Amino acid sequence: MHYLRQSLKALADFSDAEWELVVSCLQIKTFEKGELLLKAGDVCRSLLFLLSGTIVYYYLNDKGDEITTDFAFDGNWVTDNRSRLNATPSHLNIKAIEKVKAVSLSQTNLDGLYSRVPQMEHAGRILLEQAYVRLVQLSLDLQILSAEERYLKLCREHPQALQRLPLYHIANYLGIAPKSLSRIRNKKSFA
Q1: pTM score > 0.85 for this model?
Q2: How many angstroms separate the Cα of 69 from the Cα of each of 58, 76, 106, 142, 171?
Q3: Which residues contact 26 (CB under 8 A, 6 or more apart)?
Q4: Inter-residue contact 114 to 105 (CB < 8 Å)
Q5: Three-state SS for 67?
Q6: Whether 18 contacts 123, CB under 8 Å
Q7: Distance between CA 31 and CA 33 in Å, rounded?
Q8: In the chain, at which residue ranges do the beta strands (DSSP E only) sit?
Q9: Which among 64, 164, 125, 131 has a CA at the least distance from the CA of 139?
């Protein structure tokens, strides 16, 4: 819980009493490699904070191929905000790529904390703003940057992705074919 407290403390200053109230609403969950944390068609009803492990967000296209839209590692928050906030079925699957240990906070408990712990509402607002900015930046990157530039940005900003994600997930996330990713990687290794 210390890791989670440090993450939230960076967003808002919780008193010890407020923190104890937050902790009383949390659950530790584990997911095996390959296990779905959220299945497309289900309503997302919680937020997860990854203590360890790696996940990918993906949807299945008409051919049944996994199209990776995002990923998360230790210290990241995981949820489908659209589904969770609107209580509507998710379009996404969220899958453990490695064994995952996470702290879970249900939407019901989060709503209760928002009314009892103002710092939690402040932290929640900042997390939503960060998620929005990340989504907008990803959209802009896909439109503005070349495939090579997107790859180099991923290397700079998320170097662990290259060690922890299968290459087909990286290629999907970058919006390129796996063969194109191989060419870019080979070109960069000789540069």
Answers
A1: yes
A2: 5, 15, 23, 11, 10
A3: 1, 4, 103, 104, 105
A4: no
A5: strand
A6: no
A7: 7
A8: 26-31, 36-38, 46-52, 55-60, 66-72, 77-78, 93-96, 100-106
A9: 131
Contact predicate 162/173, CB 8 Å: no
Picking from 100, 58, 43, the residue whose alpha carbon sits closest to that of residue 77 is 100
Contact call for residues 103 and 27 (beta carbons, < 8 A)? yes
Span 56-85, pLDDT tens digits: 999 999 999 899 999 999 999 999 999 999
Dihedral sign for Cα atoms in the order 175, 176, 182, 187: negative
Six-digit token pair at 157? 């900003």
pLDDT tens digits along 171-186: 999 999 999 998 998 8
Q: Kindly calculate the radius of gyration of the chain based on its CA atoms and give it in whole angstroms.
A: 18
**Phi and psi (nearest 5°) for 6?**
-60, -40
Angle between helices 16-23 and 118-144 (to 10 degrees): 70
Phi, psi of 145 (to 5 degrees): -85, 150
Residue 5 CA to residue 133 CA, distance in Å, equals: 23
